[in-house]
DNA sequence: TACCGTTCTTCTCAGTTCGAGTTTATCTCA
DNA sequence: TGAGATAAACTCGAACTGAGAAGAACGGTA
């Protein structure tokens, strides 16, 4: 039994059962209107051949820095990504070989390039979240936590702007909500709401150079406003129980 | 440099710089209408004599179990507490002696007994959150994260019912919001809202045996309903920027 | 015992927001 | 040139919110 007191007295930490601390990153982006997650294929046991979230050991760095580094190693240069801590998973037995405590992170980015830029990440690829099941370790749970967090944060933060380019149309923003929520908001009400929430978007004055592929007028271009939270919130039609 | 590949090949984990994993618990309760947090006084360096959040090493148990165990050691038997994971803090240097990654937990409980029941927790005590500054390590940050989480969760979950007894009055529930938000909701509107949100509370049919200390009619008694989220939410007057 | 102040509970009412649908103008493609 | 599609604005009833007030029940005190 190890008490805090022993620890504070300078008890040699190497005498304890070793614990490894890693970060796992749930990276989401939208490609062709479908929400995708970045996964890597495992080469070794356990779970060889299975898909897993990218991740790795925490070094002499903050947890945030570790997550950013792992992400950069998988995807090459990172444009502007939103990164936030999600949940920490540490059940004994989640890795069959030793105690591993994993700090999960959630990242959002606008249409990232195909991975395979980094070193040991040749097997990394984007997978539609609907197809991302049967992942290694407890990564199904981690991904589920990330998705639910993303869905909830769209409601009360301007997070959707992290999925689109610097300048975007209201329709593109609506596409983010559609992809993440799996349900298309009412176009007219969405438009009214986005423009009425203070600080959500700001008008650039410019418009797109042409209309939509199937017709329609040119649409106005906006950029992200300064708000950190949306007030009032943009609620989804059917909030999840849980 | 330690890569994931080396780890997966069975690299000896004891060769790594040791990392300790602990849990710290932000335990909140309301006493005499004031929000209190459970703190312990540190006996040793560093931060000897300073107040800190209770916490300790994670053993052969899940993180949730570790948090519950630490809480039980500080407060004795636990009636019904709500416990949830908060954030993980792992900056290098947050503990001056070695790398410590702390998984912070948030606990809510109805008027807990005075601590000093457990073993090494003779110095544990309830402190009004307004007085809980200058804590050891980075516990000021941890506490701040816990408070903001608590404030936000009162809006969209029935968490307030975790602060009161099994049977409670609307006024007692309103007292929870007042203590946590630092602002008293409009009594009439609060009453209407609580009764209108499905699953927040259910009527017991009973009333209190006498009126308030300074007069007023007996009030009806309710118990917590089955809802996990409040819809529509009970928004605070002035949501925080951040 | 009668009264006063307090509190619970319900009600009122105007302003705001929301969901659903419609209208108008603009644009692409055939 | 016409058909279909879309952006943006508008309409309207329902629902919700904030602020205040009314009525009833109760504890303490004169």
Describe this structure in words.
The structure is a homodimer of 242-residue chains. Chain A is α+β, with helices and mostly antiparallel strands and 242 residues long. Helices cover 24% and strands 25% of the residues of chain A. Chain A contains five helices and nine strands; from the N terminus they run αββββαβββαααββ. Chain A has helices at 4-8, 63-75, 139-156, 170-181, 187-196; strands at 19-31, 34-41, 51-52, 55-57, 82-89, 99-108, 125-128, 201-207, 220-224. In chain A, strands 1, 2, 3, 4, 5, 6 and 7 form a seven-stranded mixed beta sheet that branches. In chain A, a hairpin with a 2-residue loop joins strand 1 (19-31) and strand 2. The first copy, chain A, is elongated, with a radius of gyration of 21 Å. The two termini of chain A are 36 Å apart. Chains A and B meet through helix 1, strand 1, strand 4 and strand 5 of A and helix 1, strand 1, strand 4 and strand 5 of B. The structure holds a DNA duplex (30 and 30 nucleotides).
What tags apply to this protein structure?
homodimer; 242 residues; alpha+beta; disordered N terminus; DNA-binding; NUDIX_hydrolase_dom (chains A, B)
Q: Could you give a quick summary of the protein structure above?
A:
Chain A is built from 5 helices and 9 strands. By secondary structure, chain A is of the alpha+beta class. In chain A, strands 1, 2, 3, 4, 5, 6 and 7 form a 7-stranded mixed β-sheet that branches. A two-stranded antiparallel sheet of chain A has the order 8-9.
